[in-house]
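Example complex used in Figure S2.
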Amino acid sequence: AQKITQTQPGMFVQEKEAVTLDCTYDTSDQSYGLFWYKQPSSGEMIFLIYQGSYDEQNATEGRYSLNFQKARKSANLVISASQLGDSAMYFCAMRPPGGGNKLTFGTGTQLKVEL
Amino acid sequence: GAVVSQHPSRVICKSGTSVKIECRSLDFQATTMFWYRQFPKQSLMLMATSNEGSKATYEQGVEKDKFLINHASLTLSTLTVTSAHPEDSSFYICSARDLEAGPPYEQYFGPGTRLTVT
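Predicted assembly (233 residues):
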């Protein structure tokens, strides 16, 4: 069974600063995918970034980067130059091997960006 | 990008009635759609996997007769909450995968439906 753990229920960051949201996972599979989604107060889930377990490079998408440490089974999201619009709930999720789409989500981290 | 719509966005119904929620992929085809449930300030919990032309696969603990899923076409899946009760009040979100998309095979999420049962 797969498990995702997000230990930070809430985080604060000042505008323009960088913030790291933690995510650890537990799986016995060698092949898997890791995702980060943003959920604003409106409710929609917005895909941010993806990391495959065999990807050698850490994924980056604009201001988002994923600090992937496979041996530690961690996939932390780094948001650089935080903006007020980044205030939202952030979920880490894992997909099992074989391209199956059954995502397992963590409990989420509520990020608030302050002036 | 791929767009998934849900209708309605909000619904209030009386206890004992049934409510149907639609999930549509607007610009792509999806053989598989997923239905999630989310309680306030909690994570998304997968309820079932909806497969076009076949029966849905329900997660353990989800009542099949209460949450009816129909995937009638490659662009439409419906979730019907039958005989709704106040404890069914929740945020329901669907997602879909584009058949023709390659890695990372991401799921595209709908905007969600907030159900309130009075």
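DSSP finds no helices and twelve strands in chain A. The mean pLDDT of chain A is 93.
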